[in-house]
Structure formats: C-alpha cells, structure tokens
Amino acid sequence: MKEAMLYEKLSRERVHCLLCSHQCRIEEGKRGICGVRENQRGTLYSLVYGKPVACDVDPIEKKPLFHFLPGTRAYSISTVGCNFTCLNCQNHYISQYPRENPGQIIAMGDDISPSEVIKEAKQEGCQTIAYTYTEPTVFFEYALDIARLAHEEGLRNVFISNGYMSPEAADAIIPYLDGINIDLKGISDKFYREIAGGNLRPVLHSIERFVGAGVWLELTTLVIPGMNDSPETLRWIAEAIVGISDTIPWHVSRFSPAHKLANLSPTPVATLEQARKTGYEVGLRYVYVGNVPGEGEHTYCPACGELLIKRIGFLVKENRLQMDRCPACDAQIDGVWFTP
Hints:
The protein is α/β, with parallel strands linked by helices. It has helices at residues 92-95, 97-100, 114-123, 140-152, 167-173, 189-196, 200-213, 231-244, 269-282; strands at 2-3, 7-9, 15-17, 25-26, 37-40, 43-46, 54-59, 73-78, 128-131, 156-161, 179-183, 216-223, 250-254, 287-290, 299-300, 307-312, 315-319.
C-alpha cells in the first residue's frame, strides 16, 4: 500500500478524497466509490500501487488514438478498479473487481515497480506508456510515478480515461501527459447517472482543461442502441465538441453486447455512418467510425479531402503525411506525428 495523493483529513478519522469528481468522504475503515482507496485510521491509502493486472503491447491505434504517433506501439498497463460503474463495460472483470470481490483487492495484481514498467516498455520497442483498460485516475499515484520516469527515458504517456478526474488530478498529470482519449459517453446528466454512475459536466470540464493545456486529445463515443444513438443526441455531442475545438478527432464506435447490456444488439453500421456525417456537417475536421472496417477508419485532409493515412483495423497500411502536412495541398494536419 502507498499513502494516497490528493486528500484531506477531516475530524473523527474521516478523509475527503480529492482525486476525482465524486469527491468521496470516507469513514475510517471504508473505501471510496472506486474501491481501491481505503481510509485506515485517518490516512488514505492506494491499495493498487505497483499492482498491475494487465501489461500488454498494443498498437497506439487501439486506444484509439489516430493522430498520435501512428503505427507505433504502446505499453499498456492497468490495475483493478474504476470510479464508474458502466453497464456496458467490456473490462468489467477487472474494473469492477473491487466491488464484486470485497476484501480481495490487495491480492490482485503482480508486484511491478515503475522502473520495471519502463524497462519492459523499452525492451518491447514501445514509444508510449498507455494507462488504459480501467480508469487510470484510480491508480493515479502509480501512473504518475511511471509517467515521470517515462519522460526521463524519452517515452510518451497517454491516458485512456472517462475524464472524471478532479482539476487537481488533471493539473498534477498534465506536465507528464502527452495525449489522452476521453470517453464522451453521452450528452446528458441523466445518461451519465443511469449508464455510467457519474455526471456530464466534470467530463466536459476535463476536456476543456486538457485542450487548454496543450495535451493532445481525442474523444470516443460508444453508440449504444436505444440509449445515445438518436440523430439529435449525436448532433448535440458533435456540437459540444466543436464548441471546444474543431480539431478534436471524434471516434464514434460500435457497441457490442457486454456486461449488463448483453441483451442489446450491436450498433447498426448505418447509425455510425450517419454520426460520422453529422460530425463533419457541424464542423469537426476528423471523424472516425470505430469497430467497423472501411472508409471511416482512414484519415483525410480536412482542406482538400486527400487520403492521408489508410488503416485496416488497428494496422496502418499507408501513411502519406509529409511531416505534418498534406502532400496534395500542404495543409497542416492536427496531431502528434513525431517521436522524441
């Protein structure tokens, strides 16, 4: 265990966790909503520091990050736990493990130090450390220590996040964070409360904060039939993104039945194609269709329509960018294109 960052001590051995937007007030002997931060006699501890349950090498496109060092490899790492309770979670067996197995969390995960993570990532030829699979905010202390070492060793850092971290947490990681993909799950508090167990506004604030700080950001919306797939909802999401920045790539991804929504059908491809069209209509420069092969995977020049990066799944088949420029019209293409 490691003493947690970002909390304050209250009277009667209670603590106030400042890590995410739930702002949990935790009684002695209890844990926060994430299930991985425990109050022991008035001191808050992370139960998952140095305890990853997943360490894998992925293409950066899998995150998905399409405008961040395309064709490179990311060393992906995660612990158990999450501050959301998404009904559709594909990784619920690790994200919800603390809730489903109370008292067992300390035994989960291998003992791997931050320096060992960096060593393994370099041996695997990775250019980036990706904090992913579950919400990286809940293993924040571990992620921050790894991220600091990564920068010292010339590696990049990316979060794959629900965006529900507090402003204090965002400000602490921003100096070491090179990119982030945030799930913009819907565009109403009702959807967030019922499907994810959170609220919309903190997510929008996080998006604005990272964009304002110059961290490369992409957004993903998993389009769930009957829940956030109406033309009006998808247009409102696209308009909200444009209102922050039209340079943000938007990934509209196909839902596959999972967890507590296993009774639903996959998203019709036509719905995703219409969402992509809508994104372009409202002014976004880059819109992608996720989990469906085809034209929606490719990157096109927003100025002249030239095909710039051709993909099949997570594989980059062709990259025609000239540095950060379109070879046809010389327009600058937004993204992070160069390794350190």
